[in-house]
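ASSEMBLY PREDICTION REQUEST
Request ID: AP-0331
Submitted by: J.K., bench scientist
Number of chains: two
Total residues: 306
Priority: normal
Notes: Please return the full assembly, not individual chains.
Input sequences:
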Amino acid sequence: MPTNGGSNLDKLTQHGLIRQDLPEPFARLVDGLTRHEVETLVAMKKRLDAAGAWHGLGEGTTGELPPWTTFMVF
Amino acid sequence: MPTASARLRRKLDLAAPAFAAPGQLLLDDPDARELTPCFLAAGSYVTLTMVPLMEAALRRAQELAAEDAVAAGLVVYLERHIPEELHGGAPGRAALDDLEALGIDTVALRTGPPPPKMAALVGTLAFWIWHRHPVAILGLLALEGFHPHGPTVERLVEQTGLPRDGFRQLLLHAKLDAHHAEELHRVLDTLPLEREQEQLIALAALQTMSSLIDAWLDVVTDGSRVPTVSAT
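STATUS: Completed
Returned structure:
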């Protein structure tokens, strides 16, 4: 069921990270983010926008991740 | 009811395409050979500070353990995991060896001032470890779930024509970190985490991803170069 309203949804929609009529369970996940988490996602989006490299949020892709281009040793 | 590790993974999955984007730009760049050493050096500050941050978290957790079940569980995990990350050598030594093979002056990298964005990230993580809760370290370690993908690293080696010795740790961690990530998820699901602690872990992970994206984009889109690159 689509979730409307809520400060997280409003803020992420306003910054173009998500669309308003999010399906569940993605909408519930977004609703549960903290303010700092939302601000961090918005910062990522702005930085990637500036580089022309924003391709949207992942939506619950756990377990089905594509081949990574993360060239990083953790 | 999803587990703590499942909740964390769902949050991090939101940022996964963003986290992979700078690396894709690198792969697609006709100047990938020139950019790759700088790209890898930009992320190396996190690699080099992982063990010191884990040791800080361990010390803080040991201080809290008598009255804090989460800290006590963290002590057990970190005492086991820190030696695994050392790979039998000094912290970060293997990563530095790879960078040297790519022409990076690692003495200058280690002794010069770190990039302010990376220093800010490490300082933020250290602050959270000491002044919020040492469990924040699990946010950084959760990124082992975004380990390098072996065939994609091979593609980068081929595309750049750079020495294969410069990619040894990436290729090794393509195998190791999948196991490390699974172990971390088991730890997350075992610790009696409070909601605020789960949020701290997620924030530490997302903040690390955001800072790395920023640093990598400085290299691939803004022409920022590590001043320690010699001709390769």
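REVIEWER COMMENTS: The radius of gyration of chain B is 18 Å.
SIGN-OFF: pending second reviewer
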